[in-house]
Design goal:
This protein is α/β, with parallel strands linked by helices and 297 residues long. The two termini are 61 Å apart. The strands form two sheets. Strands 3, 4, 5, 6, 7, 8, 9, 10 and 11 form a nine-stranded mixed sheet that branches. It has a two-stranded antiparallel ribbon with strand order 1-2. The chain has three domains: 86 residues, Arc Repressor Mutant, subunit A (Orthogonal Bundle), CATH 1.10.10; 80 residues, no CATH class; 109 residues, D-Maltodextrin-Binding Protein, domain 2 (3-Layer(aba) Sandwich). It is built from eleven helices and eleven strands. Strand 1 and strand 2 form a beta hairpin. InterPro entries: LysR_HTH_N (IPR000847), WH-like_DNA-bd_sf (IPR036388), WH_DNA-bd_sf (IPR036390). Keywords: Transcription, Transcription regulation. Belongs to the LysR transcriptional regulatory family. This is LysR family transcriptional regulator. It comes from Nocardiopsis rhodophaea.
Length: 297
Amino acid sequence: MDMVGACKAFVSVSERGSFTLGAAAARIPQPVASRRIAALEKHLGGRLFDRSTRRATLTPFGRDMLPSAKRLVQLAEAMEHEAERAKLTPLRVAVPDTCSTRDLARLDGEARQLGVYLDFHPAAPAERAELLRTQQVRAAIADVPEGEGRWSVPLGLASAAEPSADAIFVETLRVGRAAWSSGRRRIWIQPEDDIPQIRDRLMRVRDAVGLQPAQVAVAPSLTRAVADVLGSADFVLASHRQAHELELDWRPIGEVRLTRSFDIVASDGEKADQLRTHLWRAVARCLGAATDGEVAA
């Protein structure tokens, strides 16, 4: 039996003294109201209304049951209200601070069409993990080992001057080579790529080809790295899309293939799955990952 529906009909009829008016107030047909109240009477084991008069008059048993019925109806209505509010509560998501405002706005717009509201918190990888661990966010676009993520973003080297080769070999930056004898060129790693699977692999290439330690370094911010690149012959490790947005020339690295790999980590599994599936393309745009019909740089 629908206890809540029956109690709503019971309360509505009792307040208006009429099955017809009570049913109308409850927005159900009068026969439905009568059936629900009859089922409630059978369930409780007593008559709630005296049907010997034209008005719906409560019996003593009905008067005793009415306060509990009202509390149940009020509790059900409060629960429905809270459910509606919960649906509108934004999902707090930690995202890479490399995502553009425009792409995040498009992701937010597409999510709203699915009834999902997002609240973005741009942060570097370590901070995203900490925000999720301390439950300051309910989901995060997290770095995962290459090949295990839902989204992959190839990395290369970006510079202010257009390179003459199709790929940049790190060994050509070695001090003492004839081509670069006039100075020491550096590769800047932005905070988004300051993670072992990217940073350490590039450092190993640096050591293997004989670069000086300072020639591959982590920049305090992407802005600082780009400022150094614009004022010199340095490179910044970046995705092809980042380089395009920053108006820099981009080439893959000759000695190693480096890739950002991302997945959604969340305490809310249902909404995380929506980000992974229905919003996959929108998230890919934010990350600069290739989507269907596109070719990864």
